[in-house]
């Protein structure tokens, strides 16, 4: 995929989530199995990075189910981060920090480790992050299918792995929308946004949204085979996979990833 087409797809999704931030946030329940299914992989006292955190619903779930967790959420859409920060005032059992960061751009994970100015109320959270900058668990829930191009998706995973602690795990989920009749009905022609299909990669689709108005989102079908390929290209190993979420109960493919260990050389 050429860079111009990729930029158009990224802009399309940023504009969608900015325009429908509140409607999108209202549609995302913290009791959704697509969210609650990852709790067993997150320990108490863990440091958690939520990549593409949206309205921060994972922080709300952790506040109920994993007291003591330290949480950082990043998203490219400022409108969603504002909603997440507003909700975070009610958190009592976890510390949470939300930041605007576009993970489709190189260098986003390094910025998490860089000093930045903070309001006094956030100083303690920042002190803890700087003293222990790596994460026990990194979640990328419903994120990779919005990132155009295999190389860019692999780079997102690779950068996330850079801030994962040894022995930590990464949890990603991707929509398997072609397996759902309901989701297949959302597919619309690329002519609606003026992008010729020949400019796109196999597996690229345009899906519509009809809650609070009509919007359009770019989605790529990241199936099990591509998850394996992305993991291999990013120095990661697929520990296990499972399906959960959506009205169908299996709309999302989940993968739990570990950092590959270098082989032990025999003397």
Textual characterization of the structure:
The chain has one domain (3-259): Vaccinia Virus protein VP39 (Rossmann fold). It has 10 helices and 10 strands. The chain has helices at residues 3-19, 21-26, 33-36, 57-65, 78-88, 108-112, 123-131, 150-162, 181-184, 224-233, and strands spanning 47-51, 70-75, 95-100, 135-141, 164-175, 187-188, 204-209, 215-220, 236-244, 252-259. It has a 7-stranded mixed beta sheet with strand order 3-2-1-4-5-10-9, with helices on both faces. A 3-stranded antiparallel beta sheet has the order 6-7-8. The termini are far apart. The model is unreliable at 116-131 and 263-267 (pLDDT under 50).
Summarize this structure as a short list of keywords or feature phrases:
single chain; 10 helices; 267 residues; Rossmann fold; alpha/beta; 10 strands; 3-stranded antiparallel beta sheet; globular
Please give the structural blueprint.
Layout: H1 3-19, H2 21-26, H3 33-36, E1 47-51, H4 57-65, E2 70-75, H5 78-88, E3 95-100, H6 108-112, H7 123-131, E4 135-141, H8 150-162, E5 164-175, H9 181-184, E6 187-188, E7 204-209, E8 215-220, H10 224-233, E9 236-244, E10 252-259
Parallel strand pairs: 1-2, 1-4, 2-3, 4-5
Antiparallel strand pairs: 5-10, 6-7, 7-8, 9-10
